[in-house]
Each structure stands twice: as C-alpha cells, then as structure tokens.
User: Fold this.
Amino acid sequence: MPSTYASLHVHVVYSTKGRHPSFHPDVIDEVHRYLGGTVNGLGAQSVIVGGVADHVHLLFGMRTTQSVSDLVREVKKASSHWMRERQRDFAWQEGYGAFSVSPERLGGVKKYIENQAEHHQKKSFREEFIELLRYAGIEFDEALLD
Assistant:
C-alpha cells in the first residue's frame, strides 16, 4: 500500500500540581485556546480542550509518527512556561491519563469535555479520574492518586 491511513484520537487528562485551582473563570478560555494551539503547533489536531480550575482535558488526533508521551510532555512544557508568565508558582502534576478514542465515540467524548463545569458540580477530579481509569480497564493504586 503506497500510503498510510490512520484514525488515532486520544483523550488526555491531567491536573495542576496539588490540584491547585489555578484557572480562574476569566482566563480559563484563554488557557484552553493556548493548549489547543500548542497541540496544533506540534503537528497533532486539537479537537477540543476543556476542564475546570484544577485540571484539563485534551482531545486530539495524532499522526502515526507521534507519541502520546512526547506530545503531552511538550504541551505541558510550553504551557507551564506560558502560565508562569501569568502566575509565578504555576506547575502541572507529573503524570497524566491517556485514553484511546474510537471514531464512533469522538462525539460523546467531545460533549463530555464541553460539559466539564457542569460535571464537576457533582464530582471531584479524583472521582472523575478514577471513573475514567476503571472505564478504560486500567489497573491503578488509589493511594498514588492523591
């Protein structure tokens, strides 16, 4: 076959260090736009970025030559630098969750990310993250999530 065709979409979730509520309502849209632009600048395709004051969700498509860990590392690095120009003590947590998304689930995941503010009136980030890990069948140690 002379060409490569792929549908590789990933839902990535990570929080601010210590889950500090760093994103105030007046800047959160700007933060999300910056993250999406950074994803695009790295050669992936941002579908949507969302979240609340203490964490973000990124849904993006990626090329077969890219790795999730490299993309996330570079997005966190660039956005940390950008955020520190606004908040001197800003930092992201070290880890992240990455979940593959099939083409038929893209719309549902996009809607889930769009509704983060409403969703987090009922659930904490920790509860949400555990739910995502369980749904994906990922084994984890709850003690390491604090």
Remarks:
- The first helix runs from residue 28 to 41.
- The chain has a mean pLDDT of 94.
- The two ends are 48 Å apart (CA to CA).
